[in-house]
Amino acid sequence: MALFTLNRENDIIEKIKNNIEINACLKYLYKEYYGFLERMVLNNSGSKEDAEDVIQEVFLAVLQIIQNDKFKGESSLKSFLYAVAKNIWLVKIKKQKAEHKRLNIWIEENPEFDADINDQIKKNEALELISDVLGSLGTVCKDILSRFYYENLSLKEILPFTEFENEQVLRNKKSKCMKALTEKLEQKPFMRESLYKALKIF
């Protein structure tokens, strides 16, 4: 490992340990190690969405470990992150396999469980994801976009449900909501991929 990298890692560890510039430290970890950790998950039967979840857990866990002075420095920070990520992913895989096995057993014991029910479960999960994404824009935007795109209501029909003066003001607000959604999805490509997959279910 290059001396510069080693010194940088030691600096990051000390800052985390002393709760200094935590946001800057997290940005550094994401920039330096996200791709490395993502490849580990992808190479072990995971998806990009799985990787995103795992990496978030990894960084939170590592922050706590370092701040609790449990990181002894016996390995590089990169190796430590890899070990934590591998452990978290293995636990998730085991849990997924157990849940899949239980589901198969339940289906065998309940022959009335059919494809229609399974499809509805997927739709419910997709709706929950869509609701979460729109909810991140705020209550007003979520309400407008949900009614317009998923209830197929016109702006004229939506207007009575809002506090806007007229249809033009509502149209302007809808445009701002769509712009905010586009910007959010551009900043978070993994959220964008998940949303598109959810929309394809309908």
TrEMBL record:
Name of protein: RNA polymerase sigma factor
One of the Pfam families matching this protein, by short name: Sigma70_r2
MF-aspect GO terms: DNA binding; sigma factor activity
Residues of the RNA polymerase sigma-70 region domain: 29-97
Signal sequence bounds: none
Entry keyword annotation includes Transcription regulation: yes
GO biological process, one term: DNA-templated transcription initiation
Protein's organism: Lacihabitans soyangensis
InterPro entries hit by this protein: RNA_pol_sigma-70-like, RNA_pol_sigma-70_dom, RNA_pol_sigma70_r2, RNA_pol_sigma_r2
